[in-house]
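Could someone model flavin-adenine dinucleotide with this protein?
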Amino acid sequence: MTTPSGRVFDAIIVGGGLAGLAATHRLATNGLRVALVEKRDRLGGSSALSGGWFAFSGSTLQRRAGVEDSDDLFLADMAATGGGFADETLLRALVDRQADAVAAIDRAGAWTDELKVSAGMTVARAHLIRIGDLLAHLEDEAVAAGAVILTGHPAGDLVTDGSRVVGITSATGDLFASSGVVLASGGFSRSRELLDLFVPDQAAAMPYGGAGNTGDGLRMAWMLGAGLADIGHVAGTYGQHAETSDDEHELLTANYLGAILVNVHGQRFADESASYKVLGSAVLGQPGRTAFQIFDAVVRARSKPGVPLSDMERLEELGHLVSAPTISALGRELGIPPERLERTVAQYNESVSGRRDDPFGRTGLVNGVGSLVRLETPPFYAYAAVTAMTSTYGGLSVGADTAVKRVDGSRIEGLYAAGEVVGGFHGASYMTGTALTKALVFGIGAADSIARS
Ligand SMILES: Cc1cc2nc3c(=O)[nH]c(=O)nc-3n(C[C@H](O)[C@H](O)[C@H](O)COP(=O)(O)OP(=O)(O)OC[C@H]3O[C@@H](n4cnc5c(N)ncnc54)[C@H](O)[C@@H]3O)c2cc1C
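Reply:
Sure, complex below.
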């Protein structure tokens, strides 16, 4: 074993997003000595940037809203969204342990009343959480319980004693762990090299997500023979304005409120109710890799100020929502042939009225749920959006106890992983809210596995 010249803890957590903070909080409040290292000068990662949507079944909010959901339906929807590729053991573990996440949000007082149907769901299951409040609560309580949080402290390599992981190297000081190291370093959405390697067909997506998410944890575990899952399915998310800043996202999915998507030629090209990951790939294949969300005043009135993915007011303030009194004037504003856009909208309206079949099989607002509306009430609106690589949901192979597995399925002793660095959970696509629920549930789960070890 490398002689410990650094500090020794019971556990070390690599990465200060939701998964890392959840693990740190759980360990510290259970009396274990824990250090969290974060490579950036502030905590948060993609979690702090995110929309804050979490997927849960059987919540108080759902019951209050009269939504009939169940753990089995949640599981079945996730399995269907994953196209049969997701590891059902992981899905079952998430469903069974969601109460841990709900309790953490309760303690943080971070619930809002927003509940909606979103990508991959057959019922309203996306709960909007004040993510900033949740992260701050986890950090504050962890520090109060004695956790050491080191920012500006990038983990370099994993240190092993024989085949067991016992610590991390870092240019700013090595750290050692007697019970385990948790990789909670997020995905690789900011690594051009890894995106080119794993998903070259997505290389044109706009790099997004936390600036520190360059796949470090993936490489560290890979060096020890870790297996990978779902990597080839990673896909960008459609709905981001091309001029979004690095610290604020501008995702809009007006299509889930009734908009259609058209390309620069004014043509539809997909069922707009599909997952924004599926649409993300479809948009990458369109000219200019851009699609316009086209809608009318009725859809515009469904905007929810302050609610991520549905906030049109914010986009209007930024000057990114275009409007015009007629569809043809809108086409001229956008540089789309006006007659073509008029024809596309007229044909769509005929499909909504049932006078012709929708050529892309669209039957609902989102995932086949919700009634479509004819786009006929002026003024008309357009939002130009591209595909952004917000998160990379393929990653390390783990068991339901979060222990990292080698390529041959054997376990790497002392090494755990949680959050976006983990694969096997989403399969081929992604249900809104499951990335954050996964980070919180399995961050807590990693801590519990270490406490039991
Ligand atoms: C714009 C946007 C919107 C999103 N909206 C949603 C949503 O509404 N619902 C949902 O479910 N998902 C959403 N996602 C995805 C979701 O936010 C992430 O999958 C989730 O937050 C990942 O959490 P995490 O803790 O695993 O990683 P992160 O929160 O990204 O944290 C990882 C941390 O590890 C640090 N790190 C990396 N390498 C090292 C190293 N070598 N040493 C030390 N630290 C390191 C990083 O700097 C980062 O701070 C969204 C993502 C984005 C970008």
